[in-house]
Amino acid sequence: MPKIRMAQTLAALAVVVGLLRTSASAQTARPTNGTVQGIVFTTDPDGGRSIVPGAKVSIDGPAHFEGKSSADGKFAITGVAPGAYAVTAKVPGMIVTQSVVVTAGIISEIALELKLESVKETVNVTGSGEPVNPKESSGANTVGQSMVRNMPNRDERFDSLMALVPGVVRGSNGLINMKGARATQNGSLVNSADVTDPATGATAINIPIDVVSSIKVLSTPYDPEYGKFTGAVSNVETRPGEFNKFRVSAQNFVPHLRRLDGSIMGIAAATPRITFSAPIIKDRVAFTESVDYRYERDPVNSLPPLQSDTRRESFDSYTQIDMNISQKQTATASFAIFPQKLDYYGLNTFTPQASTPDLHERGYQAYLQHRYFTSSGDLLTSQLSFRKFDADLSPNSNAPYQLSIETTNGGFFNLQNRETSHTEWEEIFHSHARHFHGSHELQAGVEFAHGSYDGRQEFRPVEISGLAGVPLERIQFGPASRSSVDQNEIAWFAGDKWTVSNRLTFDLGLRFDRDSVTDSVNTAPRAGFVLALTKDGKTLLKGGAGLFYDRVPLNIPAFPNLPTRTINALNSADAILSSIEYSNVILNGLQNPRSEVWNLEVDREVIRNLLVRVGYQQRNTVHEFVLTPIAFGSSGNLSLTNRGHDYYRELQVTGRYQLGHSTVNASYVHSRAFGDLNDFNQFFGNDPQAVIQPNQRGRLGFDAPNRVLAWGEIAAPWKLTVAPVLDIHTGFPYSTINQFRDFVGPRNQLRFPRFVSTDLQVLREIRLPIKDKHARVGFGVYNIFNRFNPRDVQNNLDSFRSGEFFNGVGRTFHGKFILEL
User: What is the pTM assigned to this prediction?
Assistant: First the structure.
């Protein structure tokens, strides 16, 4: 079998290489390089053009080139290698990016109209690789709009595409873990506005993927603007509205049928989406609306067919208005709603539908951003957002909850009702370049945020039974409780991008955060650098270090008010042998978690169109929240402390090769994620566990020491876009338990089998019998070789199935028809 799987994988790679060779052979021999020339200008209110001298012009793609517009606004950059490029012209506060395809021996003409930065015109190139950026010190990876459109995406959600970034994995619980951090440790932004759940710290927004322009993952965000996290940061940028034409797209209007044993049994999925954008006032006001409805079933293949599905139903709506108020002012306003119902949440091989809860979430966000550009070139950005997010967790049965060796019986033991809100205001000032021992681009800002939490928790009795159903332990809880918590946060920061020379740049920043929950002010300095090791700028050394402080999720200070628990040991006759009552206690107060991060990397264009990156990153996080029970005879404390500590180490080697309109990326990541295992949300989050054993340290649940990730966007013959993805990583760790639910041996020493998945999406654009209108048709195949990638394991050593794996996701096919008018 291993030889067959290896042959299948090699066959897939051979297809990719063959397509690349076909694409390459179609190119005829031409002179070596080409030229890009043009003019940079702005448009006056009356429609006249004004040339812009001294604008910085950069060309990014297979290689990086720079130049400036002359006194008459013109520029010419020669010696550009053939390929697809993004050409950017920029002056302080104004920018434009357009695409150009450079052909050897040909002069490519382009006209660049500068616009205020918030409504910049962006035309995406076919290739989606990241060019070497000689000014960016932070470790960053961007999923561009081309990838959003073309890459295989099983559930067609924007967060799924983050797994195409080296060091970002989807854990066994389905959550995205970035750079070795828990999902609750990372920062989540949409258009630079915070979108995390105030109660848990996890991401709390869904927007239709059709409005997503790019997703940027910053593993080392040294810009002092970023705060309130200890892991990495993701920032989703939405597409600007259409100021001059009407645009509409629609897809997925045919539902997928549910087939069981050759018969059709209802609908498996229905996911229609429609998006349109149009000018309200030409060149002044643009309106965008996107609606995404989802009804999906996700089967657990190891359960009986009619009892094997989780169900998700959601409705996501995103409305955006872009405004050109004047030559110096722009604004963007948006409103998003994102309710969803997750039925049979946490369903798996050992927890049937009746024993799972339903999770219903409701939320909306209102957002406003205003930008003012001064005559001297300074930029002031004002941003205000308000988000409401509520959640209910309810059992599917009222029967007593029982944990046995082979399965779970009864109704779920926890009921939750919580309401949260978050208001954030931000002012950021960016100065024009100032010259003193080089060039300085200064920034300063202030933020204020208010969060509130009002929640109710109820816990029902839990019984643990052993071999032959003999009762071993019963957990009883105090009466239901309600808690209300408010949090005020203030931050102020300053930074300087100091360009010492055309070969050396420093990013310097200092940030202060005050949190009313901990009543402390935290100082977070950070610094990064970029050094060009060669005169041609093709070899860059980047690095930096910094401190980052996280906010305190609001379910943490509510912990002492939660119901107490009593652990009763039982004999075979169900009589109580011993009893310990645990109170919920926060020891030694609360502190903001802090991470210390540093990185170093080398970027090198080895040969034309081939970029290689080698980097190392290290993060140590302290003051994490950890739970552990401490007994004192017949009483005890369930203690919450700030003594948690975890660390992450990553060595990354990445390569990107671009040939014509095709791009192939490959990476290898060797990493280690290690820390305390009794995370608070594991026991009091959306899917709490009933049994709390003493805390231990070990590999974190999403630790994958070795990962190979390869993907590409290939411009194939017959106008096809072929996008394959190969993902191979070490299986996630797990622990073993006995019939008493005690851990046996060191934690997380064993692992799931190696994960191997090969996905493919093929799309072709076709013209419609309507002027300038078209559609895209194609298909997606996921897990092409039907690899068994289990999601569940029997980890109870007293089970006759101990060590067996279950619930693999098989091969699936999705048809694609996208209407674009």
Answer: 0.83
